[in-house]
Design goal:
Pseudouridine synthase, 5 helices, about 20% helix, globular, alpha+beta, single chain, about 230 residues, 2 domains
Length: about 230
C-alpha cells in the first residue's frame, strides 16, 4: 500500500502515536507524517505510507488553516491549556475584536514559544523550559494570509477565530499576541487544523476507520510516482 492518507487526529495523542497506530493497523513499516500536531490539537494530519514517504520533502512547506479558541483573561506557562496559570487580568470583550484581528494579516515576525520543538544550541526549547531555563529565542518571519472571527462567547470570555497562515506560525503565540492587543492576557484553549495545503479535513478518516480496509483504500491518495 503506497500513498497518502489524511487522518483526523483526535485530542490527547501525539503525531508519533498516530504513526504507530497506522503501522500496527495496516501492517506497514514505512509510515511518516508531515507537520506535527500538539497532543491537545486535533485535525488534519497527512500520513505518508510506503513509497509515499518519498514525498515528505515536498509536503513540509504548505500553508495551513486552523480554527482556534482563545481564552481571554488568563495567561498560562505553556501558552495552551496544559500550562499553569501565571497571570490573571480583566477582559473587555466589547472591543472591536474584528479590527484587532485584521492587524495581524501580512508578513511579520513572531517569537516561538519556549514550549516548542525548535532547537537552540542542539536542544529543543521545551527541554530548556522543563528545566526552568529561559533563553533568548530569535524571532522568525511568518505570514498570515487571512484571519476571521467566527464567534464570541462573552460569558466564557472566549473568542473563536479561523486563521490561514504560512509555515512556522505558532497559533499559541498568535493567541497571546491577540490578547495583548486587546489589552489583556490569554492562551490557546483549543486548536483544530482544518487544512494543510490541499489536504482538507472533509477528506480525512478517523483512527478507528483504519480497521476498515475498504474505507482506507477509498480514501488513499495515489499518484503516478507510486506505481
Amino acid at each position: 500500500m503506497d500513498g497518502i492518507i489524511i487522518i483526523n487526529k483526535p485530542k490527547g495523542i501525539t503525531s508519533h502515536d498516530v504513526i504507530y497506530k497506522v503501522r500496527k493497523k495496516l501492517n506497514i513499516k514505512k509510515v511518516g507524517h508531515t507537520g506535527t500536531l500538539d497532543p491537545n490539537a486535533t485535525g488534519v494530519l497527512p500520513i505518508l505510507i510506503g513509497k509515499g514517504t518519498k514525498l515528505s520533502q515536498y509536503l513540509t512547506n504548505h500553508d495551513k488553516i486552523y480554527e482556534a479558541v482563545l481564552k481571554l483573561g488568563e495567561k498560562r506557562s505553556t501558552g495552551d491549556v496544559e500550562g499553569e496559570v501565571t497571570e490573571v487580568k480583566s477582559v473587555n470583550v466589547n472591543q472591536n475584536i474584528r479590527e484587532v484581528l485584521t492587524t495581524f494579516i501580512g508578513k511579520q515576525t513572531q517569537i516561538p514559544p519556549m514550549h516548542s520543538a525548535i532547537k537552540i544550541n542542539g536542544k529543543k526549547l521545551y527541554e530548556y523550559a522543563r528545566k526552568g531555563i529561559t533563553i533568548e529565542v530569535p524571532p522568525k518571519e511568518i505570514e498570515i494570509y487571512s484571519i476571521e472571527l467566527l464567534n464570541i462567547n462573552e460569558e466564557e470570555k472566549e473568542i473563536i477565530f479561523k486563521v490561514h497562515c504560512g509555515k512556522g506560525t505558532y497559533i499559541r503565540t498568535l493567541c497571546e499576541d491577540i490578547a495583548e492587543k486587546l489589552g489583556t492576557v490569554g492562551y490557546m484553549k483549543d486548536l483544530c487544523r482544518i487544512k494543510v495545503g490541499n489536504f482538507d479535513i472533509k477528506d480525512s478518516i478517523t483512527i478507528e476507520d483504519l480497521d476498515n480496509e475498504e474505507i482506507v483504500l477509498k480514501n488513499l491518495i495515489k499518484e503516478d510516482i507510486f506505481k
